[in-house]
Design goal:
The complex is a heterodimer of chains A (191) and B (133). With 191 residues, chain A is an all-alpha fold. Chain A contains six helices and no strands. Chain A is globular and about 45 Å long. Chain B contains six helices and no strands. The chains are: A mainly alpha (191), B mainly alpha (133).
Chain lengths: 191, 133
Amino acid sequence: MSLLILANDPAAGLARRSFLGKSGLLLSGAAVALLSGQDALAKGGKSTASDVRILNTALGAELEAIAAYQVGAESGLLEKPVLALAVTFQGHHKKHAEILSKTIAKLGGKPVSAKEKYGFPSETLKTQADVLRFAATLEKGAVSAYLGAVPVFGDRDLAKAAASILGDEAMHWAILRNALGEAPVPSAFMS
Amino acid sequence: MPRLARAIAAVALALAAVAAAAKEAELQGDPSAGKAIYARCLACHALAYDRTGPRHCGLFGRRAGSVKGFAYSKAMKRSRIVWNEKTLDRFLANPLKAIPGTAMGYAGVVDRKERADLISYLKQANESALCGK
């Protein structure tokens, strides 16, 4: 079921409410996962300078994702239910960034700040589908980035926390693909 | 006997050459497969502009840590690496081992063929309109 199809079909109100209800359930699951991650992040027991660098790189990407969703939200291209979803996902990235930033500081590092300006390809975003595809690309990249970070953390608690964020990003990606009318979960494994 | 030994050695050498050629052919990157692998990089990188990681246009022949205005790690700036197929292959296999202290906290692309595909895509993209060519 595509969010785009739903958004363009007034007769699909019931299905839309059902979809958003299901999304809500998924997001609650992500919130639970995130909470367990926060506990792990707060410990920061066996962390190394390398861990702090990895966290800072993740923070940089999260800050960029927040800005990207802002561009999408302000584009005027997103219809109401899609806009609400984008804002919800942006809220998750804000929570990721907040906990990453606190953890970096707690571990003695200096959290990176958001850039004043990001070089998004705004000129290519002409339709709702363009915005969703752009967001999906970033979310897929985030899944891969966290997947690549999990095994290299010195502190296994940080690896667990990163994995909990990975799960959230994967759900974003799946729902965005669904909204684009693509198979939400195209394969059994992520890379 | 010496003649037989020479013949055996010649056959062995020929077989080794064939095996090496086959291995080389196997590691010829496929840019279309590499494009799919490049999706893994898109949380932090883009071809044409800097993000959490630096842009990939202009990568080949560029000294590591040299994109103007990009905030690299000290380790990357000091690495003295010039990016080419070989240095990229080594770095992508295990970034943290290749350049300890790099900000690219990523386990790497372990599979040789996947690395060859990825590098092949980057080369193709660098010669295309995606990189203003």
